[in-house]
Amino acid sequence: MIYGVTFDLWLTLVGELDGGSQSLDRNLLRSELTQKKLLEYNEDISLGTIKKCFKATATKINSQHNLGIDMNYFDRVGQALSLMSPGIINRIGMDAVKDIGILIDSAFLEIPPYVYDDSIPVLKEIKNLGFKIGLISNTGLTSPETYKQWFVSENILDYFSAITFSNEKCLAKPAKRIFLETLQVMNVKTNNCMHIGDNLLTDILGANQIGMVTTWISGLDDRDPIVSPDYSISQLSEFPDIVRKWKEKSLI
Questions:
Q1: Which overall architecture, per CATH, does domain 4-16+115-251 show?
Q2: What's the 3-state SS for 108-152?
């Protein structure tokens, strides 16, 4: 029988060095790079406006994620640019939008998030226990290709037998399909797979509604649970013991 574990990414395996929900330094850098590139196309937009529109786009992304919706990375970049100046895409063209998307990605690589100290040891232990490992991540203004490039640099890419990013599928947690398609790639049945994450809506409800077992990393989401997780932990290092107990219980 094949068993699997799928991980959320943000606030489960990685976070920001400054402890916030978004890196202020990265947001500033991508705004500065965008402003400089737009000036090449005679689009003079203030840094304050660019920062404000990126923030509004992040808010839009989060609200759409909660509805199970996302869009292609470069389309999302275009959406942000259109907030900065209506009609800008028609003026600068899609090639320029892609160039700006590449610059935004470069800011991520220059000021990346932090892989938690427990993440690689936990991934290694879960793999050594014989589980297939997947990743299901709702993503903001970073392309799937850049995430994978960064995973390689952090030596974590090879732990995953399936990686699903919301802006690659144009589909986000808690939508059932993003979980089902990931498990299909892993060749693992829903009742033989556990999902771990910090978000009660996107992670716990999302996985629970297709029959997956769930583990919630508590303390980061203070809303009233829509559905109760099967297991709760306060830190990632506790997770391998949960996985062992769950497998032993399922074999009885």
A1: 3-Layer(aba) Sandwich (3.40)
A2: HHHCCCEECCCHHHHHHHHHHCCCEEEEEECCCCCCHHHHHHHHH
